[in-house]
Design brief:
376 residues, 15 helices, disordered N terminus
């Protein structure tokens, strides 16, 4: 990091999303500096653009087309349950794909060099029922800055429902969480859409971190996005279909979306190989530098699967994403080789599960272990 006392988290703070409560990291930045130089040389040598990649615009068109087709056919032509349910599943999968690819890159300013393009792509989350404003604070500023740090990273905080960190309070029923949490994962979007976003904006708080209440364009986007989503999810369908059918298919699509989104996140951070470090109680400082901390708390998976990488927006390369969140995800497979070699050169442990199922198994074992009384 820098030579000053206050740690600088690169590429994350924005004027709209001020830095969260300050937590100090080690100031050694040799690893991060060398890695950045190697990545810069890669782009200089290949002549590739870090953003505004043609394949991203093509992918966006395909994903939006997939979502639109699933929605329109489900709304207008699905007359029987055996047609409607597969279409609702397809709709949920397409919404997750847009979240992984379009919204995620746009929210990180990794989609384009043009601010308005990134903003537009990030706003796709508002059309999916979430809030791009709340997400930018919760994910960009908090999760990416304080990955897997209990009490700081709200993404590993499930409240009383689960125990993802060994430093969180354990309740007796957590011993069964490796079974029941998989079901609860599916309700994540409903929780966002109907509760969390409103609570965060009203209270001005995200997991103990301050959230500046949206004003002006941000407030208009928040209200307008919710209005459009509720119209698409409930208003228009209720004009054509009975209430029970609309609610059932809404829950089906949302459950599929939530399960896919949750599992991909959990395979990166809540597995046996990921660390959950805490600051030293005597200094309040993390022992690792920020970039090293990202490697220690993050795990890749299924790096050889092109289809999975395409669908999840390169988020099976989470180490690379956490180190370079403002580089378009289409570059992560190539960058992973540079990152892995640099980690070896600096004696850092780089972990990648060979397959998706290997990551799922590791997450299952971690949930079981974290739910035990003996977990430390």
């Amino acid at each position: 990091m820098t030579g000053q006392e206050r740690t600088k988290i690169p590429d994350l703070a924005t004027a709209r999303n001020p830095a969260p409560d300050k937590l100090k990291f080690s100031m050694s930045d040799a690893f991060h500096r060398e890695l950045r130089q190697r990545v810069d040389r890669y782009f200089s040598y290949t002549g590739r653009r870090q953003r505004d990649c043609p394949q991203m615009y093509l992918k966006t068109a395909l994903l939006v087309g997939w979502l639109a087709a699933s929605y329109v056919v489900l709304l207008l032509f699905a007359g029987t349950w055996w047609i409607a349910v597969p279409l609702a599943i397809s709709l949920g999968l397409s919404m997750a794909a847009i979240g992984f690819n379009v919204q995620h890159d746009g929210g990180h300013r990794a989609y384009s060099d043009h601010k308005w393009v990134n903003t537009l792509m990030a706003m796709s989350l508002d059309l999916l029922g979430g809030s791009s404003y709340v997400w930018a604070r919760k994910h960009n500023s908090i999760h990416h800055s304080f990955t897997n740090i209990t009490g700081h990273d709200d993404d590993i905080n499930l409240g009383v429902l689960g125990r993802l960190s060994p430093h969180q309070k354990r309740l007796r029923f957590h011993r069964l969480q490796h079974f029941y949490l998989w079901v609860l994962y599916g309700f994540l979007p409903i929780k966002w859409q109907l509760h969390d976003d409103f609570r965060c904006v009203i209270t001005g708080n995200i997991g103990g971190h301050r959230l500046a209440r949206p004003k002006g364009w941000d407030l208009l986007t928040f209200i307008g996005g919710k209005g459009v989503f509720f119209s698409l999810a409930f208003g228009i369908p209720l004009l054509l279909h009975p209430v029970w059918a609309v609610l059932l298919l809404y829950v089906t699509a949302s459950f599929v979306q939530g399960l896919v989104l949750s599992v991909v996140f959990q395979l990166a951070h809540c597995v046996e190989e990921a660390n959950f470090p805490l600051p030293r109680p005597d200094t309040g400082r993390m022992e690792s530098a920020w970039a090293e901390h990202q490697v220690e708390t993050t795990v890749d998976f299924a790096r050889g699967s092109r289809l999975l990488s395409w669908y999840v927006g390169g988020l099976n390369f989470q180490i690379e994403h956490h180190l370079f969140p403002q580089i378009c995800h289409v570059h992560y497979p190539a960058l992973s080789r540079l990152v892995e070699k640099t980690c070896r050169d600096f004696g850092l442990k780089y972990v990648a599960h060979k397959t998706f199922l290997a990551g799922v198994a590791s997450h299952f074992r971690w949930l079981r272990r974290a739910g035990m009384a003996s977990t430390a």
